[in-house]
Amino acid sequence: MTETHQYCTFYAAGHYFGLDVMHVQEIICYQEMTRVPLAPPVVRGLINLRGQIVTALDLRRRLDLPDRPCDQLPINVVVQTDDGAVSLLVDEIGDVLEVPETDFERPPDTLTGPASDLILGAYKLPHSLLLILNTAKTVNIAAVVRVSP
Amino acid sequence: MNEVIREFLLETHENLAQLDLDLVQLEKDPGGTETIARVFRTLHTVKGTAGFLGLPKLQAVAHAAENLLTRLRSGEMAYTPVIASGLLAAVDAVRKMLDSLEKTETEGDDDFGAAIATLEALLASGNAEPAPVLVESIPVPKCVTTVLPTEPAAPVPPVAISTPPSVQPSAPVPAVTPAIVPIPAVAVEAMPVPVVAERTRSPNSQSIVSSEVTEPRATAVSDSALRVDVGLLDKLMTLVGELVLARNQIMQFSTTQEESAFLGTVQRLNLLTTELQASVMKTRMQPIGNMWSKFPRVVRDLAVACGKQVHLEMDGKETELDKTIVEAIRDPLTHLVRNAVDHGIETPAQRIAQGKPAEGRLALQASHEGGKIIIKIVDDGRGIDPHRVREKAIANKLITPEQAERMSEREITELIFLPGFSTADKVTNFSGRGVGMDVVRTNVEKIGGTVDIHTKPGHGTTLKMKIPLTLAIIPALTITSGGDRYAIPQVSLLELVRLEGEQAQKGIEWIQNAAVYRLRGNLLPLVYLNRVLQVEETRVDGEVNIVVLQADDRQFGLIVDAIHDTEEIVVKPLQKQTQGVTVFSGATIMGDGKVALILDVLGIAQKANVVLSIRERGMADKAAVADTVPKETVLLFSTRSGERMAVPLASVARLEEFPRSALERVGKRYVVQYRGQILPLLDVGKALGRKKKKTPSASRQKSSLPVQVVVYIGQDHLVGLIVGQILDIVEEAIVTKSRARRQGVLYSAVIQEKVTEFLDVEGLVQAVGPDFFDSTPVDVYS
Question: What is the pTM of this model?
């Protein structure tokens, strides 16, 4: 019996991503956001999550993917971090998948850019690749700010 | 962590703070038997519990200290500073072990043999015999044993038993004996809480109880108080914050309703919420005395180490502050107190030589003032010598000797707040380690407070901290900029100015790219919030809203798109993804449930260059200090040949910028059409007869640029002065004047460290030619 992992899956710019289900607090539909002027572009705004103020980060921008069309409202994937909850804005939500570890493979060395640092690896699913994100690194944008002068 | 150990740590830490106070108190009043009894009891409890928990080292240290105290209590030995130091060292050893216990659940590897040896040596030096144990003479223990039916199963170490209750009929112990005799058994049963609390800790109930009953009064207060986890209070605070927000939402909603029963309920909810909020805030309030309690010890240790005598006074201990603020000012305050003892107060010999009492005075004062807490640290020491500060600042290259020459004593004093400044010649154990006054100021400013210093060489120094009462829920003004709402903390708010109609167009004047508004005769620098935030402008034409704010000691006007009302907001910190944005200090949830950012007024002022560094500030404030010379507000500009000149601002009508194409030639002169009239222009540089220093290519490049014109109000004419660049507007006392060396100049003076010539416009006009105005008469007040 091989070990399996559960992932919360979602889509962004046509890619299929997964986060460790244990890190995901909840999924909520689009919320009105308050933008934060002068903040890094990846910060799309602040949302009121039942009285808690949560920073919303755009996953597309985090991964240097093109912005989503204006008419498409993002979905909040709220993840738990050491610094409280943070929301990741994604295009569409998928299922919670249980995948066997044997299907996992490290990303190829040819993967460069911000994604190489954030993607732990891929699960080879029949219809596509499920890219697993490192939760802590994905929400830690201090690193991004430092890189771009 | 083991619940018993946790409980022990909590209690012992609390007791140790009191212990420090008591030991220092004893030094002043060695005969304070009640104090000795309290110290004894605390140490005994520590010893007992340590034995119960199996902590031999802790027990040994406490035991040694306790032995010494037994002698003191019985009057066989007198309390001396040497003994005090020994006991304090023991307290430190205990503290160290507690810390280790907290971290590793063991006593740690340190050997406290030295501390014990010191105590034993002290004990040996007192020549009295061990006191005989006379438990029978005390009536109380009997009834106590009924209260304490069983001892804990833990092994009772022999050490604990050897401690004699200090009652001794041979030596007269006035305070202990009378305290014991009148207490009937009922009294002990009537206060079972402390006794039972002791039970688990004490392997030796008799001596515990005997010391317990010497002080029955102390228990009454602790009975009515409850120890609550701070985390729980924080949670309560958050919940009340949410409630306040929900209340605000309902209040907003209720304005659309007409049902009277509903409106009545809303009103009641409003009142209750406000009251609840106030009560919960109060639970977070701590008397500042709690924090101050460590200072007697700090001051004492430091004074002994420096060979000084310091008398510490504390005034306003009961003044209450929010817990978070207490935490925030703990370090700055400690630093200031240390500074006062280490640098401020002189040695007894020096003091006597100056005709002061040998004992220096250090006072801590706390009070409320206009919604803020004022904390003063006053010493009567040597004060701050401006000459030494100046030398040090020059030596550390913080200022140049030339700059120092021009600085007032007050400005020099302010230099101690610069990073990297220390007057301590040598690094002592206590100060001069680089954590300077700049850190103090930064920390206090971080929580919205300020620090001021007043010093009189030879007479002492007063440091004044102004601190806001609380941080969690604050009144704030809500405004709009770029379509988003922002909150501005009310503490920074001075006034609101609204310009309408013509005022909106004319009220704001420009000095190059800097907007100003004349607020009651003073120029108020203006900052456009949407430009600072780099968001679009959504301002309605024909109206300007200026929020006048105080940042540090500067005022500035923030131009916003719209001003709403004030409301209580709950400050929530920003997450780390947005913490780098210095113009915001937090966020809050508004009545409608949307998030609004809280503006950091100081951050905005810094971003917009309103607030300068301390050094620059010192220069600019020079005028305020030199109060014997009346201040003048002058406009500084450079001529097109680069000379630095000034004219009184009172004579300046406006500052204009004309495209070069607007200049027209009439005869020999240039004029420009200005507000339907013809304004004669005078090139200041040329009129003064200086040749341009520029190379031809530079001048050609310049010729495409617009012309800067100062519209000057002459005796009965307007004159357009063509200048190279507008530099600044300064309000300054013109101290150094020297006679003019050429025509067209009234005199020279030093402004902002530079020699500046004051332009004699009338003289210049006459020099250019009597026909200057002939062709173009204009009415000044058209």
Answer: 0.48
Q: How far is CA B532 from CA A134, B527, B601, B628, in A?
A: 35, 8, 12, 39
DSSP string, B390-414: HHHHHHTTSS-HHHHHH--HHHHHH
B451-492 pLDDT, tens per residue? 888 888 888 888 888 887 666 677 889 999 888 999 998 888
Sequence-distant (≥ 6) Cβ neighbours of residue B492 within 8 angstroms: B549, B550, B551, B601
Residues of A in contact with B243 (CB under 8 A): none
Backbone angles phi, psi at B113, to 5 degrees: -55, -40
Q: Which of B534, B595, B597 sits opposite A48 (nearest CB)?
A: B595
- For B649, the token pair is 């601002």
d(CA B563, CA B547): 8
ipTM of the complex: 0.88
Phi then psi for residue B169, to 5 deg, are -65, -30
Residue B526 confidence (pLDDT) above 70: yes
HSE-CB at B536 with a 13 A cutoff on CA atoms is 4
Residue ranges of E strands in chain A: 4-12, 15-20, 24-28, 43-49, 52-58, 75-81, 84-90, 92-100, 104-105, 119-124, 129-133
Look at B581 and A53 and tell me if their CB atoms are within 8 Å: no
Contact B597 A142 (CB under 8 A): no
Q: Do B575 and A141 touch (CB under 8 A)?
A: no
> Which residues in chain B touch residue A53, judged by CB atoms under 8 angstroms apart?
572, 575, 587-589, 595
Q: Give, for B369, the enclosing helix (H) or strand (E).
A: strand B360-369
What is residue B160's predicted lDDT score, i.e. its pLDDT?
A: 39
